[in-house]
Design brief:
139 residues, alpha+beta, three-stranded antiparallel β-sheet, two-stranded antiparallel sheet, 6 helices, 40% helix
Length: 139
């Protein structure tokens, strides 16, 4: 399972020294709950077992390591995420954890496209600027 490694790695919840803080992009609904989440060094919601927000975890965090470009409706991924080689391999199986994750992301993006297009544009702008991204094969 590719995401088994996430609770150990936690790379996505850290900002390397010398890099600017990462403001997590929130949907309109998430802003009402969280107001803002900014990772200066490491996310304040990061525990030993991963994110402690549970069901309240922001969608932009749930989506990681994927990046969605709303104009072309294309998926990319953060090339520095160590999970991605296994993730891409798993996309060949419809029953894999990676395929389930991608389906969840697509379903949520479809819903957000109807009510919060601004979030999708803002999130892509942040991700494109912050991460080294490549097109996601087999999406």
């Amino acid at each position: 399972m590719p995401f088994d490694y996430c609770a150990e790695c936690k790379r996505c919840c850290h900002v390397d020294p010398g890099y600017p803080a990462l403001e997590i992009t929130l949907t309109a609904a998430e802003i009402k709950t969280h107001r803002s989440i900014c990772i200066d060094r490491h996310c304040s919601h990061l525990s030993n077992s991963g994110c402690d927000l549970g069901e309240q975890k922001p969608f932009s965090c749930q989506m990681y390591p994927l990046v969605y470009e709303p104009i072309g409706q294309s998926f990319f991924y953060d090339t520095e995420c160590p999970v991605m080689p296994r993730y891409i391999e798993q996309l060949q199986s419809n029953r894999s954890e990676a395929s389930r994750h991608l389906r969840h992301v697509k379903k949520t993006i479809k819903a957000l496209s109807q009510v919060d297009l601004d979030f999708l544009a803002r999130n892509y702008a942040v991700d494109q600027d912050y991460f080294a991204i490549e097109p996601l094969p087999n999406a």
